[in-house]
């Protein structure tokens, strides 16, 4: 139909129509290429934190079955901590301060692909699966986890958020976690940074972590003592490349 239409037009108009179509297609292709190049450039700003802070400990829980879902999480193909380089530089300074007093960071999660977040959503919507309730959400019905604890989008997917704690060195040279009063990913009031359900010493340990993180440009999440986001986060792109 389009060919017949062009055939019936004067030659100069036909050329103009064809030229306009070519320009439009070329422009769209160029815009798509520019978008892909821009995303590639932005993605290249992500780095492997283990390479930058080798003295820290990395216990990437979602690569394993040791998490609230009870199985390895989709898109975690390697036990790696990946973050935007701006957040990593700040995190390195936190660890350097801790090293001076024979302590170090222990990291549980960093960049989280959107595919992994979707896995979490499928799990929270499956109300029949309560196999991890006693360990991770003993005082809440599973549907109440949706929203404040588990949501359709996570700041982790932007690459500036990290879940972590502090380890201290014992007299025999081993490292152990500071007692924070509740374990990582316990969905409970007890995990609130200023919870009244923990001891003063446990609160002091939490505030040590918080003060160091805030000092180096992170903000905290009051419901989870382990959760921090670097303030350089533009809060725009939610990434979905795998951790590998």
Secondary-structure blueprint:
Elements lengths: L1 H6 L3 H33 L2 E3 H4 L4 E2 L23 E3 H15 L3 E7 L4 H12 L7 H4 L24 E9 L5 E3 L22 H16 L2 E4 L2 E7 L14
Parallel strand pairs: 2-4
Antiparallel strand pairs: 1-3, 4-5, 5-6, 5-8, 7-8
Write a brief caption for the model.
This protein is α+β, with helices and mostly antiparallel strands. Helix content is 37%, strand content 16%.
Structure description:
With about 240 residues, this protein is α+β, with helices and mostly antiparallel strands. It has 2 domains: about 1-45; about 45-230, Muramoyl-pentapeptide Carboxypeptidase, domain 2 (2-Layer Sandwich), CATH 3.30.1380.10. About 35% of the residues lie in helices and about 15% in strands. It has helices at about 1-5, 10-45, 50, 85-100, 115-125, 135, 200-215; strands at about 45-50, 55-60, 80-85, 105-110, 160-170, 175, 220, 225-230. The strands form 2 sheets. Strands 2, 4, 5, 6, 7 and 8 form a 6-stranded mixed sheet that branches. Strands 1-3 form a two-stranded antiparallel sheet. Strand 5 (about 160-170) and strand 6 (about 175) form a beta hairpin. Residues about 1-5, about 20-25 and about 30-40 have low confidence and may be disordered. It catalyses: D-alanyl-D-alanine + H2O = 2 D-alanine. This is D-alanyl-D-alanine dipeptidase. Belongs to the peptidase M15D family. Its EC number is 3.4.13.22. Catalyzes hydrolysis of the D-alanyl-D-alanine dipeptide.
């Amino acid at each position: 139909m389009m060919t017949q239409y062009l055939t019936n037009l004067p030659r100069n108009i036909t050329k103009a129509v064809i030229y306009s179509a070519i320009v439009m297609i070329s422009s769209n292709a160029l815009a798509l290429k520019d978008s892909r190049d821009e995303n590639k450039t932005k993605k290249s700003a992500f780095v492997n934190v283990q390479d930058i802070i080798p003295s820290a400990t990395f216990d990437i829980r979602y690569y394993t079955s040791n998490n609230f879902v009870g199985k390895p999480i989709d898109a975690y193909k390697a036990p790696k901590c990946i973050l935007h380089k701006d957040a990593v530089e700040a995190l390195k300074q936190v660890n350097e301060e801790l090293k001076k007093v024979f302590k170090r960071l222990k990291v549980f999660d960093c960049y989280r692909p959107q595919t992994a977040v979707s896995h979490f959503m499928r799990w929270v919507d499956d109300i029949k699966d309560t196999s991890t309730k006693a360990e991770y959400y003993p005082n809440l019905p599973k549907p109440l986890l949706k929203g404040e604890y588990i949501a359709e989008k996570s700041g982790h997917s932007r690459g500036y958020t990290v879940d972590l704690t502090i380890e201290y060195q014992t007299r025999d040279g081993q490292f152990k976690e500071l007692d924070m009063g509740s374990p990582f990913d316990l969905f409970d009031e007890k995990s609130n940074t200023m919870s009244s359900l923990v001891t003063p010493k446990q609160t002091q340990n939490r505030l040590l972590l918080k003060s160091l993180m805030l000092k180096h440009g992170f903000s905290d999440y009051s419901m989870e003592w382990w959760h921090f986001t670097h303030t350089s986060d533009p809060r725009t792109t939610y990434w979905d490349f795998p951790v590998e």
